[in-house]
Amino acid sequence: MSGSSGGDHGGERNGGAADERSLFQPPAKPPAASAETGAGSKTLIATDRVSKYYPVQRGFFARQERFVHAVDGVSLRVCRGETMGLVGESGCGKSTLGRLMLRLVEPTFGRVLFDGNDITHVSQRTLRPLRRRMQIIFQDPYSSLNPRMTVGEIVGEALTIHRLVKTRADEEARIVALLERVGMRADALNRYPHEFSGGQRQRIGIARALAVEPEFIVCDEPISALDVSIQAQIINLLLELQETMGLAYLFVSHDLAVVQHVSHRVAVMYLGKIVERAPAERLYREPRHPYTRALLAAAPRPDPERKRVRLVLEGDVPSPIDPPAGCTFHPRCPRAVPGTCDREVPRLEEVVEGSGHKVACWNPHTE
């Protein structure tokens, strides 16, 4: 979070006609080094001050370039066999960050490191073998599967691309094994996606992700489109696969209860930035950032009689095209300090040495 200015909206073009390549070039801002990437050999994938800005053109003759700050200076790591939960309001940049880690979206600034190697600017040819080691499970099981392909073709496509099988018989045996591993019957092999329920389709999506034996999977809100009765089954399946295969997950969700259940650590995102990060148990027990406390206070609980402090946030989420200066949360923060929070960007710093609990706030809660 440090050194990332929320008021940086892009520079003005030089006068005269610009060639097409110069359109919407983001403002020059070299990435700073981050301690997040030096976490040791247990780190599988990490981002170092990564940002993603999307250009916005306002009129054909507009001279001022503006950008949507989808992700802004985020450093995050996921260790082997770990689940990193990522929570925040819709539109805060959670899914974009997951795609940046997979190089499905190209970063504007910063670096992505996989297994200690910088993969930010490697070619698609070099990146292709790494695709086996990192996969994604999409949010919508209805639109993420090709309706014109059978389940066998969907799951087996990666096997063919990466040349993991030599014969058709080997491919079919492996697909059947994958389907059975996620709780599907072998006779699903020759059927089409429209013949299955949402939960079954998501199981097919999980089988597709597992086909290449990955080490890291981005779970992009994998249960939000499913019935409540099915959600627990998918969550239990993901936990079982993690235990047996040693998988690492980035679990993106707005469901705070689910994130608490599945995650080892949790990061809270607001307007493209990480505002708090901690071990899951500690974050839910002792949230320090006002935004985290507001999220937890608004989440439904199974015991409605239990008293809890209500935190009311004023105003709306600022536009990511024109984020506030200083702390981006200060216009809605009940603890904002005039002259500090509205001017200076807070660093993501540890609240208790050795706790792993970091918060980006000039006036965090201390109780």
Labels describing this entry:
Rossmann fold, disordered N terminus, 8-stranded mixed beta sheet, alpha/beta, 367 residues, 4-stranded antiparallel beta sheet
Characterization of the model:
This protein has helices spanning 94-101, 124-131, 151-161, 168-181, 198-210, 228-245, 256-262, 280-285, 290-298, and strands at 43-56, 66-79, 83-87, 109-114, 117-118, 134-137, 216-220, 248-252, 265-270, 273-279, 349-350, 358-359. By secondary structure, it is of the alpha/beta class. The chain has one domain (20-133, 214-359): Rossmann fold (3-Layer(aba) Sandwich), CATH 3.40.50.300. The strands form two sheets. The protein has an eight-stranded mixed beta sheet, with helices on both faces. The chain starts with 42 loop residues before the first strand and ends in an 8-residue tail after the last strand.
CATH class: Alpha Beta
Shape: globular
CA-based gyration radius: 22 Å
Helical residue percent band: 25-40%
User: In the CATH classification, which architecture applies?
Assistant: 3-Layer(aba) Sandwich
Low-confidence stretches: 1-24, 29-33
Q: Provide the number of structural domains.
A: 1
Question: What is the third-level CATH name, the topology?
Answer: Rossmann fold
Q: Mean pLDDT score, rounded?
A: 86
